[in-house]
Amino acid sequence: MPLQTRIPRDRRGLLFKEGDYEKFLMPGTYFLMPGADLRLFDASQIFIPPGELSIFLEDAALAAQLDIVEVRQSEIALVFEDGVCKGVLLPGRHAYWKGVRQRSFRVFDRSHPRLPDDLDRHALRVPAVLEQIQVFSVQPFEKAALFIDRKFVEILGPGDFVFWKSALSVDVTKVDMRIQHVEIPSQELLTKDRVTLRINFVFQYRVVDEMRVLTEVKDLQTQLYILFQLALREYVGNLTLDEILQKKEEIGPFVLDRVKPELVSLGLESSQAGVKDVILPGEIRDIMNQVLIAEKRAQANVITRREETASTRNLLNTAKLMEENPLLFRLKELEYMERLTEKVSEINVNGGSRLLDQLRSILLSGQ
Predict the structure, then answer these.
(1) 185 by DSSP, 3-state: which?
(2) Would you call 345 helix, strand, or coil by DSSP?
(3) Phi-psi group of 106: left, alpha or beta (phi > 0 → left; psi -120 to 50 → alpha; rest → beta)
(4) Residue 143 has what pLDDT?
(5) How far apart, in Å, are the Cα atoms of 15 and each of 4, 58, 128, 205?
(6) What angle do CA 15, 17, 23 make, to 5 degrees?
(7) I need a labelling partner for 356 at 20 to 30 A (CA). Which of 88, 115, 118, 314 fits?
């Protein structure tokens, strides 16, 4: 006895008999004989057949209700429903039901892995899409070189650059275009007079030819260290310790002049360099300290003798003035007597007009 069954509007049916596919059924009411197997499929989803897709596509009625998307081995496709990205299709043949939703498909050739600029960036936030892309960010102060399959393609400016994951390798090498401050670690240098010392050297540089730096220079920092260290060794090796200490400010300009041609060949320029510290061995520092102490003592002795000479000269000039002017001598005498009497509690003198003579006699006699 036939059984009544109904296929809803959002479903599609495939009828099987004894395991073999018979026909495609649209929404509606049907009477099925016993033993018939009706399988329903959600028309809003991708059609995943219970067997080889090509066998089912032999049914013209079924094929007319499906959108077939062919994605080749080097391709990838995005699925859009009502203008919104819903997922990714990998290589293979894919089938979607027609009619329920407005779908569109966009196929990309991954042999050109960079995503086109006209692709809506909101589509890249879909989890299935995120798994298939790689993003490289270049900051406003950076430039970058793009290599695809180990071949240089172009120089990239600031921005975000999106590429499909594929059999082709994609590498983005970046360089900072800002002024860089670098310190050369202290190293042992031998002076002309065989003294070992250490110099901490600093310099600034910036990239002026990013193409050369990114495509021709390997390990930029190491090359800079070697260049400046060799120039420092050349300068220090031709001067004695005393000459180096006297000409410390000249080291920076000398080193810059020496390395300038090499910096140009590396795509760089440098305008400032100088010595941060000169570190002497312990025994040399002790000797220098002793020399400094001796020099300061000698300077102090010279100053002391100069002051003593000036004081003696002043006394001589004062004596000459007193000898030539009795009144001045008398005033000076009164000044000293005043100072002396301040320290005496009581002095006895006789009356008369020669009071000062009596005071002088008393003070001279120790009374």
Answers:
(1) coil
(2) coil
(3) beta
(4) 96
(5) 14, 15, 33, 76
(6) 35
(7) 314
Structure tokens at 153: 């393609």
Q: What are the mean pLDDT values of the chain's consecutive 10-residue runs (367 residues total)?
A: 86 91 92 88 92 91 93 94 92 90 92 90 91 95 95 94 94 94 83 82 93 92 90 87 83 90 93 82 60 71 81 78 72 68 60 56 57
Q: What pLDDT sits at residue 25?
A: 93
pLDDT at 305: 82
Rounded to the nearest 5°, which phi and psi values hold at 16? -120, 145
pLDDT on residue 153: 94
Q: What residues does 268 pair with on adjacent strands?
A: 207
The β-bridge relationship of strands 75-81 and 84-89 is antiparallel
CB atoms within 10 A of CB 357: 11
DSSP β-bridge partners for residue 114: 163
What DSSP string describes 48-102?
A: --SS-HHHHTTSHHHHTTEEEEEE-TTEEEEEEETTEEEEEE-SEEEEEESSSS-
Residue 268: the pLDDT is 94
Residues forming beta bridges with residue 171, ordered by sequence position: 147
Encoded tokens for 336: 């000293």
172: β partners: 146
Q: What share of the chain is helix, strand, coil (3-state, %, to 5)?
A: 35, 35, 30
**Residue 180 one-letter amino acid:** Q
Helix axes 326-341, 355-365, angle to 10 degrees: 60
Q: At what angle do helices 251-266 and 220-237 cross, to 10 degrees?
A: 150
Beta strands in the chain, from DSSP E residues, in sequence order = 3-7, 11-17, 20-25, 28-32, 36-42, 46-47, 66-71, 75-81, 84-89, 92-97, 103-109, 133-138, 142-148, 151-156, 159-164, 170-176, 180-184, 188-190, 196-207, 268-279
- The Cα–Cα gap between 320 and 362 comes to 27
Q: What is the C-alpha R_g of the chain? A: 50
- Cβ partners under 8 Å of residue 336, min gap 6: none
Sequence length of the chain is 367
